[in-house]
């Protein structure tokens, strides 16, 4: 009871203790910098950021082994998947947006209908064939493309911006459907030529 009475009687003493307690809990910038420096390197315990050299070595060794195993697993998976791919044949051959095979002549669809006795019905097909085969003239192919060896894959190398070459396909190889001997491609005789063109899919 006497202690409580003394505290009540002397309120100034309590006021003097409050700033002292607050001062003990606060730290200056110099003290914080000293603590940070001690955290980065403690010469007494010989620790760096709270760990000894042995502890840091074990952690680094663990992560080195861990990420090496991850990289090895990734490389092994890529190697196994690449073994299933062929550079010459697509793995999945399904219906795609650009068709693998097209026909010529191709005007307003895949239906070809005409009357032999009426030239106007089959002349558009003949004109379409001539326009398509202009790029396969023998002289054009000799200038633009290269001669390839039969039975051997032709690999196009070189930088990306370099103009790519293709194997020569001469128009004369089509024989009676080349339009050289018969300019009407057989449409005037009711025996029309229809070309199948394979696209690069």
From TrEMBL:
Keywords for the protein's UniProt record, in alphabetical order: Ion transport, Membrane, Signal-anchor, Transmembrane, Transmembrane helix, Transport
Chain spans, region Disordered: 1-20
Membrane topology reported for the UniProt record: Single-pass type II membrane protein
GO terms (BP aspect): potassium ion transport; regulation of DNA-templated transcription; sodium ion transport
Gene3D superfamilies linked: 1.20.5.170, Na, k-atpase alpha subunit
Residues in the signal sequence: none
Composition bias type Basic and acidic residues, residue spans: 1-18
Subcellular location per the Swiss-Prot or TrEMBL entry: Membrane
The keyword Ion transport appears for this protein: yes
Transmembrane regions: 56-82
Keyword Transcription tagged: no
GO CC annotation terms, alphabetical: nuclear inner membrane; sodium:potassium-exchanging ATPase complex
Matches recorded under InterPro entries: Na/K_ATPase_sub_beta, Na/K_ATPase_sub_beta_sf
Pfam family name, one: Na_K-ATPase
Its job: This is the non-catalytic component of the active enzyme, which catalyzes the hydrolysis of ATP coupled with the exchange of Na(+) and K(+) ions across the plasma membrane.
Family note: Belongs to the X(+)/potassium ATPases subunit beta family.
Protein name: Sodium/potassium-transporting ATPase subunit beta
Species of provenance: Crypturellus undulatus
